[in-house]
Amino acid sequence: MQSFLHPHLPYPWTTIQEPQFKTQILIPPKTCLRIRTIATSLRTSIDYGYEPEESVSKELGRLPVAIQSSGCVSRYLWDGDSLQLVGVDGGSSSFSFDFQDGIRNLGRGCSLAIRNLLIPKKVGQNYMEYVKWKCLHRIFSSALQAMFRAIGIGYSRSLPSAAALNWVLKDGLGRLSRCIYTASLASTFDTNLKRVRFSTSVLFTLGIGVELLTPLFPKYFLLLASIANIAKQISLACVLATGSAVHRSFALADNLGEFSAKSQIQTVCFDNLGLLLAAFLNVLFKNNQRLQAGLPFIVYPIFSGIDLFGIYQELKHVHLQTLTKDRLEVILNTWVELGYVPSPAEVSKLEGIDLPWSKGKGPWPIRIGSLNPKDHFSKLSMMAMQSLSSAEYYFISMEIFYTRMPKRMHQRIIICLREGATTGNVIMGLLQACYIRKALHLNKSKWQKILEASDLSDSVLHEWFKLLEECKVRARDDLCILNEQMLGMGWTMKNILLSTREQNRYSFIDD
To pair with 249 at 20 to 30 A between CA atoms, which of 86, 293, 296, 422? Predict the structure, then answer.
């Protein structure tokens, strides 16, 4: 421990008058009190050197403690009588003014102020990229809506059917559709967050396009305005429903309230920039009324494309730590093939936006749910159910499914979960299914011919159940270390979010 009050300590600055109090230091037995010079590991812009004693009446002694608050750094100083807190990042010991340093400090201060206004204190590494693309998306979306309002005002006299009743019907239909949408797709907001968020953003953009058509077709104002408002209300419901999950993925200190507040500030600031962009374009073409009237139709495809591109890039930087069936399947596939657990950022990159046409392209996809009685593997499924015991909470079988375009028959693995199945049971079953798929892929031609046969022989069934048992043993051996590595990578292991169909369970009846 360094003592700055010892009367015989050599100070590197001018000697000051000793304070009029006594200090008693208790030294434990067999302990050596070592007095060292003041630590100078903290580098600051203030340089305290020897100065003539007549230049200052009292000089300050630097203490090895600095405080950082709101982007500014201050250091504790001792003047012999009391402590002082002096800023060390702005040349407080000098009265000279450097213009370049002043501009630099002003710019740094403004940037810190803007950052403190828009960005929470503790965020994930990918949050700044997310905000950058959010800024692009909100600016062009706001500009597009502002230009629509301008054209709507210009054509207000050509909308004789825009009566108060029509507006009430339009808003009422929009809100009713919003309630129906959120009620029917409540679980989808968790299991397919990125896909739903992007698809509703496309719907919102199309709604703006329909709104642009209302001045051209005044007789169909109510129909077009209602369709547009329904699309916008659905998109708004999705943004509100998924906002908390997005914020939680960035919050490092459970500061969700701060994230929500900063998100609202960001939205307001970025939307105002969009309004300025729309106003600038209108002022730029104010001398050409014809061009100004058609400007929204010209910029609509450009701004819409930039808006959707910004949303797509924004969602790519949202790294969710919650587990869904698809996200867990990516993790387990990486574990089976490469032997390690990927991070949320790696899974987010592989997962993408998870659009419907990008799913199920590989051989033998995996589904969680209940058996379809019309499948072509009835004997296989029957034997799987007959072999169940009261200690098992899932069983695995095969089923047939058909693709629409082109219409082709495919096989996939199905996992049926029992009532009371835990998170560990789901991980175990999906891991076993991934090992089964790997084994099928290694002998693709053999199993393809077997599964395409109209009837399964006893030898085939025996080989299938032998494969099930081998993969189950491998999955059981990996489960413990897999769970540890997943927790170490930051995955939330408490629950696995499943869709409505994936939540179907069977009950075991012990007759």
Answer: 422
